[in-house]
Automatic annotation (TrEMBL):
SMART domains: PKS_ER. Coiled coil: none annotated. Gene3D superfamilies: Medium-chain alcohol dehydrogenases, catalytic domain, NAD(P)-binding Rossmann-like Domain. Residues 2-311 form the Enoyl reductase (ER) domain. It comes from the Bacteria. This is Zinc-binding alcohol dehydrogenase family protein. InterPro entries: ADH-like_C, ER, GroES-like_sf, NAD(P)-bd_dom_sf, Zn-ADH-like_protein. One of its GO terms (molecular function) is oxidoreductase activity.
Amino acid sequence: MRAVEVHTPGEPPRVVERAEPDGATVALLAAPITPLDLLCASGASYFGVPRTPYVPGVQGVGTLDGQPVWFPTSAGMAPGDGSMAERVAVPAGAAVPLPAGADPTEVAALGLSAVAALMALTWRGELAEGETVLVLGGGGVVGQAAVQLARRYGAARVVAAARSHEGQQRALAAGADAVVELGGEDLEELAGRLGRALDGPADLVLDPLYGVPAAAAARCLRSGGRLVNLGGSAAEHAPIDSSTLRSRSLRLLGYTNNELTLEQRAQAVATVAGHAAAGELAVAHEVVPLAGAPEAWRRQAAGLTSGRLVLVP
C-alpha cells in the first residue's frame, strides 16, 4: 500500500510503499494535514522526538466493514502509525460511525478542530440563547466552525476577527455579522476596533490566539463574561490586566480536546458530522492526492493554504 512517512523530524515526509498493517484496518477515504501533525513531526513538541520512520496523521475518515467512520490515532505523540496511508490500523472501539450523507473530505476537514469549536462554545463556554459571541482567528478552521456553531446554538450576534483579508472573507462566508482586522501590538486600538464591531459588550469570546488579541477581547466582555482559550498561536502570554478581570468579574477558561472523555469526543464527532451532513457546517478545504503529500506538507508549514488540506488515496 502507499503511505506517507516521516523519516527526519522537521523535514517534509515522503510517499512510500509499505506492507499493510496487521489486524482490523480502516480503508482510508480522507486524512487532513493539521498543525498538530506538523508539530508532532517537528520533534520540538512536548511529546518529544517521534520514533521514525512513522506514518503521520492524528485523525482520518475511512470505511470499516463497509461503514464510513471517523477515527483518531496517536501518531507522533506515541509510537505507532497514523492516518496518512491507504489502510490504517485502528484500535477496537476507537472509530466513530458517520451519519448517512456525511461527505468524507468535509468531515476530515472539520475533524477535531470543529470538535474543539463545538465543545469550547457549548460545554466549556456555556453559550446561551441570544448572546453575543466574538471569535478570534475567525478565518481558521476552528474559527470558521465556531462562527457557524455559535449561530446554530443560539448566538444573536457573531463577530469574527482575522489577520488577513482572505481570513476575514472566510469568516464572513461562514456567517459572521461583522469582521475585524487583527494586527499590530496596540492593545487599546484593537480593543476599540473590536468594541465598535460588536456594537455592545460580548458575552463570550472564543480564543485560539491568546496574546494581545485575547487581552483586547477581554476588554470587550460584559460583567461576568467568559473568555475560552484553546490555543496560543499568537503568543504564550497575554497582557490581561487585573483591573479588567476584577472590575467585570470575568471568567477566563482553558479548553483542550484532551480533557474530553472518549464518550464525549465520540458524541461531539457525531454531532459535527451530523451538522455537516445536514448542510449546516462546512469549512474551506482543498483535496490533495496522497502522492502530493510532501508538497502539501510544505505548503501547510509555510502557511500557503486557502483552507484545510485533505489527503485522499
